[in-house]
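Run log, item B.
One chain of 218 residues. Sequence copied directly from the ordering sheet:
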Amino acid sequence: MRAIIFVNGIVTDTDWIAGLIEADDYLIGADGGTYHCLNSGHVPHLIVGDLDSLDPATKERLSSEGVSIAEYPCEKDQTDLELAIELAVQKCSDVILVGALGGRLDQMLANLLILAQRDWQASIKIVDNQQVAESIRGGETVRLSGQIGDTFSAIPLSNEVTGVTYTGFRYPLNNATLALGSTWGVSNEFAAEEATVAIESGILLLITMRHKPAHRAH
């Protein structure tokens, strides 16, 4: 099962979100991110957070419609998104975060870094229209799909990422080492419609930027 978590970031166009959602997706609103779900024409199955960004009338209406609500105190040690992910991975093997970018810089960085926070027992991706971000850990290999010319970047999230090997890009790497802060992996390009990325150790953030709409954004 796939979960889509709507985060309270900046979303200027919801048309692409409507195209992303499938009939059997489990929809979660992380506090004010609930509005992104509603604006795309869907009702969430679950709302999570301290609900300080959700209008009480909206909360009551959705609750009366059968939407589950997991409400937490405002003074807590986790963001609404982290709480939502923890609930999502209990029942879903794939999780997509929508609305995780834009707005406050601290929250946007926290949302990106949450991909590497722990070894989540699910595949987690941030999707922002034609941009997709995910992380890879040492010993893993991932396959990425794109169109020739799409932009790809690899950004280290640990002090060092070793054994970086990828194929299918204009500039392939073979057993390379990327240090934290290195820009070596920024602005590569897809040279084929399928590419692979593998690392031996560390944590690497992978970002794909599509130049044309994909058939499915995942």
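Observations after the first pass:
- Residues 16 and 171 are 30 Å apart (CA to CA).
- The radius of gyration is 18 Å.
Flagged for discussion on Thursday.
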